[in-house]
Amino acid sequence: MPLYKHSEIIPNTFLLIWEITETKNMLIKNLKNINQLTLKLSHLKSNSHKLQFLSNLQLMKLKNISFEDLDYNVNGKPELENRYISLSHSFDYSAVTVSDKKVGVDVEKFRSKISKISHKFISANEINLIGDQSIENFTKVWTIKEAVYKAFGFSGIDFKKNIAIESINKRFTKAFVKINIDDEFESYNIEIFNFSQYICSVAIQST
User: Fold this and answer.
1) Which residues, 6+ apart, have CB-to-CB distance to 29 below 8 Å?
2) What is the average pLDDT score of the chain?
3) Which one of 67, 77, 118, 132 is at 20 to 30 Å from 32 when CA atoms are compared?
4) Helices marked H in 63-196 — which ranges?
């Protein structure tokens, strides 16, 4: 079972990361309601998406959460009855975060094309803030904003206009972010993890 990471970031906020090396049959093993899962898998087009979905379920199982426990709101955000949850995946890794606070997670692999589209989601102030305009830093900014977007839970968000990185620490492993749309305001603390050519950011609502 290639669990890459399982950590409590702050009290009652957990990050779990899975490195996907198994086959579909290996990942579906020991999961509940195989018939329902098989139906869900039939709607996923690619084998990689099926593996990512199943690895997310394996991570959820470690926190005693099953596929049947999930509901989805009108914007497609996964919800639990008494906790917050967020899911992500990218190539060979998947991630789940569970918390008693509003939370979002995003994992992304380093890809050079992010430099070409960075102007679409990074403001001039944020360029000055991050300094080094590297693929790694651009990926960090993207995962930060994607994680905040998932935590906020509403559609129609402009990453450049509505989500603002206010501050980062020296090593760019933490950030503070505000989101503002239609007079709705929220603030998030960000934890950033760098591993194996991937970035994973977790957004936790600030109290």
Assistant:
1) none
2) 93
3) 77
4) 114-117, 124-130, 135-152, 159-162
